[in-house]
Amino acid sequence: MMLLPCPWCGPRHAGEFRFHGAAGTRPDPATTTPEQWRRYLYVHDNPRGWQTESWYHSAGCRRFLTVERNTLTHEVRSARDTQLDAAPNAAEDAR
Amino acid sequence: MSILPTSRRARSATGAGGAGGPAPMRLAPREGEVIDRKRSVEFRWNGTPYTGHPGDTIVSALAAAGERVFSRSYKYHRPRGVLTASYLDPGAMVQVGDEPNVRAAHRLVAAGMDVRSQNTWPSLRYDVKAVNGLVERFLATGFYYKTFIKPEPLWPLYEKVLRTFVHAGEIPPDSAPGCYDQRYAHPDVVVAGGGPAGMAAAVAAARAGATVMLVEEEHQLGGHLRFGGPAERARLRELAAAVAAQPGIEVLTDAVVEARYDDNWIPIVARSLPGIDERLIKARAGTLVVAPGLVERPYVFAGNDLPGVMLSTAARRLINLYAVRPGHRAVVLTANPEGDAAVADLESAGVEVAAVVDARRGETVTAAHGRHGVRAVELGDGRRVEADLLVTAVGWTAPTSLLNQSGDQPVYDPRAARFRPDPARMPDDVLAAGGIAGDGDLDQLVAHADAVGREAARRAGAAGGAGAGSAVAVPSLAVDEHPELFSAGTGGFVDLSEDVSAKDITTAVAEGYDSVELAKRYTTATMGPTQGKLETVNTVAILAAATGRSIAETGTTTWRPMYAPITLGALAGRPHQPVRYSPMQPWHERHGAVPLVAGQWIRPEHYGDPAAEVTAVRTGVGIIDVTPIGKLDLQGPDVAKLLELLYVNKWQKLGIGRVRYGVMCAEDGVVLDDGVTGRLGEQHYLMSTTSSGAATVWEWVENWLQTAHPDWRVHVTPVTTAYASINIAGPRSRDLLARLTTDVDLSAEAFGYMNVRTGTVAGIADCVLWRIGFTGELSYEIHVPASYGLHVWQRLLDAGADLGVRPFGVEAQRVLRLEKGHAIVGQDTDGLTQAFSAGVDELIKLDKPDFLGKPELVWQHQRGTHPRLVGLQPLDGSIVPPEASQILDRAGGIAGRVTSSRMSPTLGRAIGLAQLDPELAVVGTHVTVRLPDGSDVTAEVTERVHVDPQGERQRV
Amino acid sequence: MSEETVPLARSPIATDPTVVVAGWEVCARVSTAPLTLSDETPLAKVLVRAPFGGAARDALGVSFGRTARVGLGTAGEVLLVGSAPGEWLALGAPGTAAAIRAALEERLAGTGEFVSVLDLTHGRALVRLHGAAAPVVLAGVCGIDLADHVTPDGTALRTSVAAVVTDLVRDDDGGVRSYLLHCERSSGQYLVDALRDAGSPSGLEVTGFRGLVPSSA
What we know:
heterotrimer; B: alpha+beta; Ubiquitin-like (UB roll); FAD/NAD(P)-binding domain; six-stranded mixed sheet; six-stranded antiparallel β-barrel; 23 helices; 48 strands; elongated; disordered N terminus; C: alpha+beta; Gyrase A, domain 2; Alpha-Beta Plaits; 2 domains; five-stranded antiparallel sheet; 4 helices; globular; oxidoreductase activity (chain B)
């Protein structure tokens, strides 16, 4: 099985992780229509090539990772801690 | 001159090969033989005793004794003998003891072995099923699609008959379980193949600082050097000594590299290890060197499956490794130097070589004749030569499977008559060495492999970081010309394991299955135990000829793991199935608890009388071990925001010491989990979840925190097993608990329903005490630091003896909560049950700006057509409908189902919960319940709460 | 079982014969074999959650993936493990959890960062696998490369061991390979059974509670 380059733990067997799918944007619950909401829930792109997706390192650091993976070759060109990326200050705890 | 095999005469005269008897085909000692003549090994073949030597394979020992037939073929039950004298030999699958499908030309003889032919009746010699050679037209290619189809009612008979013809061994039901093992490994370099190239590459890689695993299928290193001439044997000694002297090389013989998965994840099955049957090594290699050598290819012609027709490498193995004469009088068809060398070996073994047919001069063989073995060979020029042995050397197949699995797509080279790796498509971490990469003399092949080994070490980052230094210059290997020889065009078998003939391939094409993938599946060619290593190229060649395309255009089928068939035992290894126990488990076991497997947990289902346990809780006090309940410790300034997001109800105003019940949904509005959450401090909460949902909810919560609200400050720590959890339930529960706690005021005024306190219980500090419901009685759930769980449990039972305290199990709890109409997520709800169908309408606060699943719940509520969770009571209270019984609507369709159903000891009648369409979900309605046996009962829709509808008993 | 006047703490790992040490029922066996497995569950275990890198992390002095022995004053010496990003586990002598908690809270109070400190003493099963052959045992149940240059002494990591999520800490003792393994409490018995199964061909023997190995003076 492929190795995933966890930014914290180093390269680990993919079986240590749980795949959480391609990132999608959550529609605003206040204004969303059923069509938009169900598209968010059920209709996902299935690209042949690079995809940005979420993986959880369940048997390791337990961090959610944003991974760029090529669905054809299984190359991984980046794997970043999702929370740190989005709110580095929060993780550093700005007052 | 008679060429009748002497075996029959010799055996009857002296029991040749039998205990004490001479082996008529055993030669005088030869240089390079691998048998130890100083010792003997006695074994049985189909009940008759035979003798071999340590180092003999089953086939070599039997062949020495003059045996020529080892099996009957798959469909037609034709007699089969030695073809390759190696692991791949299709005619040499036998049963050894209780182990079926043993490769007899690879398995070494052992004392006391009981070897039997497979699926032959009444005997190997006179197999009655061979009569289906006469009914060939019913068993032609694709027969399972064409014959035995009609009439359909006869299928069970067809199955029974066909099953008895299957060529496979037996596994006796009382067979002792095998002993399998597994191990992880991280070698810098794995070398697949222990011939001269593999050995040279391994030594070079290890010298360059790499840790190396050298894997060889045979029982010794050496590959084709083992059965070569003096020069080959000398080189073998040199290379073997170099391997032995070089630190850093782990040598595995009788082992196979089974596959190559992404990032060089490589399973290796190792046998011949002390104390275990097989070991699965799961290796993550830096670099893989593929050096499997070349596999000699059979020739397709009429009679090519007769015993006595064998490859040149088979003859040389028998003669040089095992000192066995393969026959008396031979015809040799040769197209290459190895075939020429076989002629010399045959002569040195005392075989009369009656004719040498040189394919390079355009000569050929068209047929082998005989019934139980070769008796005569027909040549291309029409001559008929009497012989009992026909040796062919018509070409080599590259076993590229591991390269294909690595992403390579080998290319057919018509000049060399074989497939070759395409270097442009090999991934960086895989290299090829030896015959599979090219040709040359031993020096050239070894020099090439040496460079490959050094480069493999460099790429693996051995001793200096990945890719250190510049790439090693690997010399290129020339590729020798070889005539393309696949089929004489006179019929014969293409796949001996599957009994697929050349005619079957052309028939398949005629029927429209003209692509290689279709032809393979239709004919089953290449689908046998050899997986195409002996068959693919010939199949492709015949297919190409039949379709007017070239071999390159036809292509090959896809090679997939495993390289060699693998046992389920090896894959299973050591079973790793986690089991989880509560701290009170020793007490449960000692007191007759009936175990219930709940996910990974073992829980007490009951202690002998669940109905009495229910009654004890309703009338006195009972205690239940609920340790598996999920518990999450939540700390931080933003916990309330988190709860507000996760649950359908409101949490911002929950005071310290207060507890609220919550339901959480997924974004599709489907109920995900439920539980109570209590506030222990300003920024400290404790959330409980269902036991089966504990891990799911934790991951769910982390997902929302880390990816959707990275700025929220919440620390989530699972404490599910940090606490032993005990629910003390019943009218006397306060009395009992009061005897064991001094620092918590348990009075109704001080500690009301849906509150939480911390305190000391039975001398244990830092316990969490919850006053919550579920059973409907006054009850306290105490969470005790888990190491003291058994202590507190025991103290409760001791302190409450005069109160009649008794333990109750999961079954009693199920009944108690059902009497109170509490839904269980996952039982009364399923993967489609949105929250308004879970009986928690009052809980769902649609006026909250946002919570997970809200949009779907708004729409569900608007539609109003959703099923409702209702109470159910069969009119005949003695009938307990099984859970999942369907509820019918007026038209006889499905209107709902029974989700929970039990006999209530408290009411003395059956009660239940059901999901039911809204038209029928009105209290008082009578509905029809269809039982699994097809009968119907009438039930009345009731309120969900069957006992104490006002809920007064739990609020005292 | 009769009334216990003094409550007895128990590990999830069954053992026989037993002896009581610091209020815990522990294994009474003593093995001199070169490869041993001991139940270290009685050790105090205190969890710290804090930002990944910042004043709290500096105050603790240990980064993710590493360990250090740290003196905490009256709470004694602890083995401080950087077990995950933003997560540290302090291991100390049995019975010292409250003191360790207090000492850590004090140390971190001045940082003003969002910090939580929890007593997880009872939530983890903890064992020590000790001996030169320890990597051979672990190779049967764990896919991590335990070579010196990959996981040297003082490494902390988390992975799957025999299908259970387990923390692995290399804590060599007197130059001898030694690993602490811990998992959520209820899987402790299973983990020990799996380690003993993997270790039996290497002559693994069970021995009694050893306690924390102090740092060399």
